[in-house]
Amino acid sequence: MTAEQQLIDAGLRAWKDSVDRIESFFQPLSEEQLEQVVAPGRNRLRYLWGHIASVNDALLPLLGIGSRLHPALDAMFVANADRHSPALLLGSALEQVSGEIHGALWAAFSRWSAQDWLAKHTAVSDEDFRREPHRNRFTVMLNRTTHMAVHYGQAVLARPRTRGVGRG
Amino acid sequence: MTAEQQLIDAGLRAWKDSVDRIESFFQPLSEEQLEQVVAPGRNRLRYLWGHIASVNDALLPLLGIGSRLHPALDAMFVANADRHSPALLLGSALEQVSGEIHGALWAAFSRWSAQDWLAKHTAVSDEDFRREPHRNRFTVMLNRTTHMAVHYGQAVLARPRTRGVGRG
């Protein structure tokens, strides 16, 4: 691998690790467990799972891959806060949409060259991109990786503790 | 900038954004606010701040930059869970050690070439590194960036909500 490919590989590993631990965390949960909140008065696990799926679905148009696969998620999990949303989805549906979204993203991510990754995303104009070349796909992908990590950190707070005290 | 430099720049932005939002979140908090837990029975904010500082301090030897600046943090914030630790630090001390650690890391990060970033970290043998070249400094830095994000997501749960419901 060239140095460019190795740097991209490191970013892709961070992305993939984040997606994998999100799916490993949420998939085994029952509908009852998905109703748990991460802290009193905060989001339910069901909402966080859908929120991550929806934010990542929006990467498809933002990175120029294609249209959103599940635009209806936005009203449920992004535009409206938990408990102010229209009907949410069952765990089986969340597992399916999340898998489709992350599969479509990975199909593009895993074949992009350095030039592809450093191309501008679709929400920045040519003019702005000349001034701010960091507004590229690679930066956006890393940003969404930390977004997943933020919510993963919250989700695990709803997990029964196996030790005497929480380690966060 | 070359493609390599742009890819590194994207990674450094993710790191820097994570450090900056950690510091911006914790620095203004009073000693009383630092005693708040992120969820019932979970870590106090004071513990999370020190935990992040300590884990990042350990990057100094791991990435071959130098010795740890504050090895005593480990017993307080990593080896022992919150409330099972020896005396923790006041906010003013945490601000200082965290600033020193992140300053020392940035001094190295901001001058490394692609070759420097793709060099092995110090906890992997030459032999293992030949088989697993992804065990390099860039991968470790991105990994610690998501580590910060995980705990940032938890820390913000202790912040008073400004809207009717929590958005997580």
- Within the CATH hierarchy, at the fold level, what is the topology of chain A? Four Helix Bundle (Hemerythrin (Met), subunit A)
Identify low-pLDDT runs of chain A: 163-168
Helices of chain A, by number, come to 9
The quaternary structure here is: homodimer
CATH architecture of chain A: Up-down Bundle
CATH class of chain A: Mainly Alpha
Shape assignment of chain A:
globular
From the N-terminal CA to the C-terminal CA of chain A, the straight-line distance is 37 Å
The run of helices and strands of chain A is HHHHHHHHH
Radius of gyration of chain A: 17 Å
**CATH level-4 homologous superfamily of chain A:** dinb family like domain
Roughly what is the average pLDDT of chain A, rounded to an integer? 93
Please indicate the percent range of residues of chain A in DSSP E strands (runs of 2 or more): under 5%
Q: Tell me the structural class of chain A.
A: mainly alpha
Percent range for helical residues of chain A?
55-70%
* Main sheet: strands, sense, barrel of chain A: none
- Total domain modules of chain A: 1
